[in-house]
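Revision sheet: structure tokens.
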Amino acid sequence: MDECVKCPEAEYPNKDQDRCLPRTLNFLSYEEPLGIGLTSIAMTFFLMTALVLAIFLKHKDTPIVKANNRDITYALLVSLSLCFLCSLLFLGEPNEVTCFLRQSAFAFIFTMAVSCVLAKTVTVVVAFMATKPGSSMRKWVGKRMTNCIVLSCSLIQAGICVVWLGTSPPFPDLDTHSMNEEIVLECNEGSVVMFYIALGYMGLLSLISLTVAFFARKLPDSFNEAKFITFSMLVFCSVWVSFVPTYLSTKGKSMVAVEIFSILASSAGLLGCIFFPKSYVILMKPELNNKEQLIRRKK
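Predicted:
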């Protein structure tokens, strides 16, 4: 009777189970079609964001750009450009540097983007309330409040990431159990709890932004940016709600592709819903980019 010997972890048995074959390495590389496609999409949206930022800087003194805090608008565009770039950290063979940086960078940059959206949403509400005679909200109108929102929200996420990286940082790992014929090269998140705390905090800010924008969507036309923010946050939240079950049900490079796609789709949603209508007015309808149009009210 022949003796049965278990294959080493780096090998798997053939169909006849009479010899061991080497297992291939599984990771999402830049060279394969999926990696090339995701990289191309990320760079395309990065360049589009840079173009929108250039348009807003060139027309910085026009009413449509000055409305609702230029500095927060610039910060949001820079954050979105970094969101598109940070997706590239998930491509290629995992190593200590990329594993250490990619989830924490993604969490912090996205939180900064969402906090900018929240600050813009609160600005819409406060600006409308401040127009009422004798309103005490006038003292909150200005850069101080919006800067405080962005800094405080971002610093909380930074604190979560510091605790995560300081106690149980992500590291490159080998998954030899998910696939029989392949070894999955992946980044072990270190602390799964901290990963979902960072993700949950970002989700909480998104829900707050969506809720505030939803209730502010029917304000007069002069403050109607809330309508665009509502739709953008609806897209953003929809992407990340569908991300969690999809991410947990996939393995190997498909899991990485799902996260990259979610990053690109949610960032593109914010860019398109908030900035494309304004860019269209600036470039194609300059006659609408005047103070009289911006202060027009619903009849």
